[in-house]
Structure formats: C-alpha cells, structure tokens
Amino acid sequence: MTVPEERERWAVPATPLPEQRTPAEDRAAWFSYTTANDQIVWSAALSALLGREPAEKEMTRQVLARYVHRDDQAVALGAITEAWTTRVTVRATLRLMRSDGGWFDVDCRLEPMMSPDGTVRGIRGTVRDVTSRERARREDARLTRRGETVQSSLVEPDPATGLLTRARFADEIDRALRRAAGALLVLRVQAEEAGDGGEGVRPERNAELLHQAARLLEDRIGPDQLLGRVGPNEIAVLLAAAGWSSARKQAATLVEALRAETGARAWGGLVRFRTDAEAGSHDLLIDAEQAWRQSRETDQQITLVAHPVPARDRQGSYRNRVADALGTDRFTLYSQPILELQTNRVTRHELLLRVLDEADGPQSPIQVLDTAERLDAVFDIDLWVVERAMRLAAEQPEMGLQINLSGRSVGDPRLTAEVERLLTQYQVNPEQLTFEITETALIGNLSEARRFADRIRDLGCSLALDDFGSGYASFRYLRLFPIDLVKIDGEYVVDLVDNPQDQVLVRALVQVCQAYGIHTVAEFVQDEATLRMLRELGVDYVQGYLIGRPSPVVPGRLPSA
C-alpha cells in the first residue's frame, strides 16, 4: 500500500523538459568584444541558442568559463589569442553550454576588429550551430574505435596449425550436440623415429608433422565437418550429424591417410554422441583421447566408443592418469622472475606448472588442469605444486614465490590444513608465499574459499588475483576476498604503448587497486617502452620476457637481480 507521503510526492508535476531548440540563422548569431570596457555583447539569436541573456557587467573570463564547455576552453582561448596576435580570421569548432546544462556544437569564426592606428581593438565572432554534423562525426569515430578494440570473431585459430583451439572446438561440439547425433574423432600423430615414450624427437619435427597433418585432414573432410587442435600432437575431427557406420569408415580412412602420407605413426579414438546424452563436449574429448591411447597400447589404428563412458568410470580413469603422471615425474615446475619497480630488483618468482608430453617435452598444463577441474581431480596436482614450493622457499628464504591454485582447490576445505602442515614441516617463512587464484576460475565453494583466504593471511601469506580484467568477476572478487596483489591481464599490456584504449584501461585498473590498497603486477612486458609507461602509470611489479623467460626450477637456485 502506498503511504500518504509517497502519494503527495508523486502528485507533484514533473519539471518540464527544455523546449526543442531550432538552429538560428548564420548571420544573426554573433558576439563582439572590445577592449574599451572589457565586456562582451551578443545577438538575440545567440541568446536564444544559449538560453540566457548575458549579464550586464559579466567580464570576458567569466563568459568563457560559463558558456564554453570546460574541455574546449583551451581551444577557444587559443583561437582568440591567435586571431588577436596574427590579425587574421581564425575558425574553431567547439561546444557551448546552454542554461539547462546541456551543450551544443558550433563553428565559430573569429575576426579581429582593427583601430585606425592598426592595432586590434576587439574580436567579432560569428556562430553557426553544427550539432547534427558533429554528432554524426563523433558517432563515426566511436564506431571506428569499437571496431578497432573488439575482436572481429571469437574463433581464435591455433597459431601453429590455423585450426580451432581446444576451447573453441569444444564450443562447436556443444552446438552440434544440441542439433543432431554424430561422432567425434581425436587423432594422435607421432614421428616414426620416436621411442616408446616419444624421446629423441626434435620439437620442430613435431611442429612440422602437426602442420602437415592439419593440411592433409583439411583436404579430406567434408564442408560441414570441423577440425581443431586439442592437444600437443592431437587433432580432433567433428563429424556432426554423421551416422555411426559412415563415421567409422571415415575415421579409418583418415588414420590410414596420416600413416601413409606423413610417414608418422597415428592412432584414433572415435566416440559416438547423441543429443539426449549426458556427456558434454569436454566429456567427449576425454573419452576420445582415452580411446586413442587404448589404440596405441593395443597397437590398433582406431578404438571405437559406441556409447558414452559412465561419468564415474571417466572420473576414475582420469584420476589414475593424474596419479600416474605425479608418480612418474611427468609434472615439473618452471619459474619466471618478477621485478619490483621501486627497487629494480627481482624479489619474487611465479612458479609455473608444466607437463612433460610423450613427444614434445614441456607443455602448458591448461588442457590437463581444465580436465582435472571438471572431473574434480585437480586437488592432488595443486598439492604437489604447493609442497614443492614449500621446499624451494625453505632452500631460498630471501625469495618470494607466487603459487597458482585452481578454483576448485581454493574451495576445498582440505587445502587450508595442508598449507598449515607444510609450513610447519618445512619451517617456511609465510611472508615468502603468495597464493594466486585466477580471476576466471570456477571456485567450487565461495564460503570455503573465503575461509582459506582469511586463514592464509592470518598465517602471514599473501593472496593474489591473476588475469585481472579478463572476466566478469574482477571487481566483485576485490570485495569478496582480502586480495593483496592483482596481476593485470597481459592482453592489455602487450600492445600498451601503441594502444590508447589499453592505456586508459590499465590506468583505471591501477587507480582502482590503489584505492583498495592492493599492489599491481603487469604481465607480458617485452620491451623498455612498455616498462617505462607502466612506471608512469604507477604499477608496482612487472613480469615478462624483458625481465626473464620461464626456466626449469633448479633446487636452491632461483636467480635474483
């Protein structure tokens, strides 16, 4: 029910909007200024444009400040000065303020008024309303800026092969799942000279092989079929709306073609999907990858999975793979130095997980971690990283370490207890450690994550937010968690010097963090010009190839500047 006060408030008539203004005739809108009395006068038409008459004793400086848009006052003053000193007519486009607080655009023609002795005794200005023209110009400029700053497509090709990346390919699988049944084929190619574990193959040979395989497959798939690079030496083929029988025949043909024409070893894993299946894109990719591994183990060209693997079996299988990788030292740590700009010293390192692939050596763990998070198998990986970080911190007590954690582990109640146990076991100074969570990470339990954050800060560790600015939750996380440091997403740093829009964004992010009492790190710093600009913007730390590339961790030997 509405209360009486509310009824009275809404009964008050609204203030009428200002009437629509019609442009004045060019010849009628004018003003003049003379030095004799240091006053300005203007025509009735200009008064109509401005919505007010000039005050009788209003001085010229007051007029400039009151009637010219504040961002254009320097332009107006410069044009007046030029006309006065050069004694020639000057033209300028600027914005004038109306009495209702709005503004409009004008072309202003400024003519010096001369005395008989040849000196300038005043200025006469003619004003023409050009709001429509300037609005159109600004809109064109705005659309141009948006066109330059927004990606033309979400389809990001893999730089090595030109194929879809794993993430974009997974999106296409999900689209296909909504339309019709089909099949997914994952192919593994490996150089013939590789041993059982893939040792002895030059990385450039594998890159050449993968590029060759991608071009061969492009020539042999149908126009409605898609390719994607889904692993270091893996290419996936999406056979959307394909029948199972035709999918089997095409998969066998593609494997045979890879073996015959590239001189490489090749295996395939083919998985059928239906629109009513519970398995999603990532589940199907995992099943197909498991299938090609089975092909390799059984020395077959292709393994068929006619029905989706039960979720429990898939999770168990992947956990076994993670345990096997941890037990056989297929995970390793690299470190990258971080420079403190105040002291110009490397005072900390970020620890980076790498996976030793069968053929290519160290690989980014993104694919492994993404799958492990989805199957709730990432905790053991994070714990492995934390324990080795503790050992390094104990061996080098003067160096700070930044440790990446998955969102799932941050929300796992076991993590806090393990961190406390390891701090005690290795006698580590907690101030050496900063735990990083990725801004885009899927945190399993926000309440538990907050408890973890509060507890590690009570212990003396710090908390960092990685990839700041890359996702929707950036500023929300600053309020949810006691963040000590944020890492500005390198996407906004790599072209900073040549991109004014990125400069505005980075400046704003730094100012927000300073207001919150948070330190900032800029990633992807690759040249001196970018470093100088980041200093000017107030960034606290920098990281990138200019400072140092990631390198394998050698116990007790993290270099400092």
UniProtKB/TrEMBL annotation:
Coiled coil regions, renumbered to chain: none
Organism, scientific name: Actinoplanes awajinensis subsp. mycoplanecinus
Protein name in UniProt: Diguanylate cyclase
A single MF term (Gene Ontology): cyclic-guanylate-specific phosphodiesterase activity
Record-annotated PAC domain positions: 90-142
Region (Disordered): 130-151
Limits of the EAL domain: 315-561
Family matches, as CDD domains: EAL, PAS
SMART domains: EAL (SM00052), GGDEF (SM00267), PAC (SM00086)
Lineage of the organism: Bacteria, Bacillati, Actinomycetota, Actinomycetes, Micromonosporales
Basic and acidic residues: compositionally biased ranges: 130-148
